[in-house]
Amino acid sequence: xxxxxxxxxxxxxxxxxxxxxxxxxxxxxxxxxxxxxxxxxxxxxxxxxxxxxxxxxxxxxxxxxxxxxxxxxxxxxxxxxxxxxxxxxxxxxxxxxxxxxxxxx
Amino acid sequence: xxxxxxxxxxxxxxxxxxxxxxxxxxxxxxxxxxxxxxxxxxxxxxxxxxxxxxxxxxxxxxxxxxxxxxxxxxxxxxxxxxxxxxxxxxxxxxxxxxxxxxxxxxxxxxxxxxxxxxxxxxxxxxxxxxxxxxxxxxxxxxxxxxxxxxxxxxxxxxxxxxxxxxxxxxxxxxxxxxxxxxxxxxxxxxxxxxxxxxxxxxxxxxxxxxxxxxxxxxxxxxxxxxxxxxxxxxxxxxxxxxxxxxxxxxxxxxxxxxxxxxxxxxxxxxxxxxxxxxxxxxxxxxxxxxxxxxxxxxxxxxxxxxxxxxxx
Amino acid sequence: xxxxxxxxxxxxxxxxxxxxxxxxxxxxxxxxxxxxxxxxxxxxxxxxxxxxxxxxxxxxxxxxxxxxxxxxxxxxxxxxxxxxxxxxxxxxxxxxxxxxxxxxxxxxxxxxxxxxxxxxxxxxxxxxxxxxxxxxxxxxxxxxxxxxxxxxxxxxxxxxxxxxxxxxxxxxxxxxxxxxxxxxxxxxxxxxx
Lengths: 105, 312, 193
Fold this sequence. Notes:
Chain A is an all-alpha fold.
């Protein structure tokens, strides 16, 4: 098997993670479940970044840095997501996105 | 690759079997020392084996509507993670496998314990068990960061995250001399992630045994063995990272490492059994207000020493 | 150019990839919130396994470490905010499931078309002897700016998260005149005040 094929397979797996995560983030009503969908999308980014490093540019650290940044984005997303969930629940006992549409146009 | 790993030297299957055997022996040693300290020596060598055999034969109890999948998964994960963490601990001067991030590997296996212990508490659908699981998470927030800083300090001085490199960097001077805080925090962190001794709040008597309250038979054996192996593996790791591993006069290296490991185990059990169980809400504040600054300061001291060429 | 991965590694990567997607789907299928959270953890651990096979040891173990702790915290919130923590009664909480499925599948198809139609460069690449050292030297050298910004972002997150999540200010702790000797905290903590 050539490395190009393995790269394409891994990127397909990453794309599947992104697709499943997108479905979850859009379809779930609970704020916490929406966050889980977003995490899954970022999991796909991790996988794609790692595959890109190994097969395309292992002599450069850039793809590794991309994975680090994706990990940090995940941490920030979780921390802020939990904080917002607690804040909005404390203010008006809301834990579903449908009841928090103040910013929708 | 600087040195041969155990897997390369002996072949994969024998090396894995050897590490599992070492893990079991370490677990039995920890349980025996614990028994000797608590009840004064009588039958200390036989008792762990006898109670293991009894738990193997004991019939399982169950509860109403347990989450059996997650319960078994958590219970099995505890000893498996303990053995996996042993894979980067040098045994006879070699680790089972050697990666460029051994210390982070050890840390990650212990972090996976967060999930495993919570699952053991969640599985039986019982209030005391899940309370114990939550207590473990709260306690985890207290010990995790100081423990990470302690591990990183040893890696910092050696200029490598590989365990064998850290051992090799202590030829002239044991790291415990320049980083006593990191050593103490690491050993205390080991007791905390094995939720043992003063950090046994997740299994405390006030919640009827907490995470282990509904465990019986093989499940209890797996969790208890996992805790003991984790303690033994951490003692061996502490001896390797801070006490120079196999370095010492006259005796061969592996024997020195074994003696140091036994000394750490004995000290840990002797002190740990004399302290009361700490409440997680108290340990969290101490962890963040005292230990995080202290370990950061320790890392700063070591970093300055590295820059002055002290360890070179 | 032939693959650098051995046959075993390719098999492992394939199995882990399928596993990560399968447990990713399980997140939105299972009823129990505890199982959903740990299905997501399973997906991340499979991704970490792939990274391990791709010779990215440090990133793999850091992913496993971070995601495990994140999911252990996540499960607390899942049980706190969801109505069906143990999944003892089947229920669904979704809106616009059909549209979301179409969008998710559409994104997947577009990405897959791109992945399989693009002519990927096949050139001889030089592998660094140690990927961890490569990353460390990038962080402390050529890519230090990224790390500086990450540090500031994480610090800002700590502050903002605490401010959002806490409901108590200094007037709750020290009274309306800020003159109480002891703060009135619901949890006493471990240090003398």
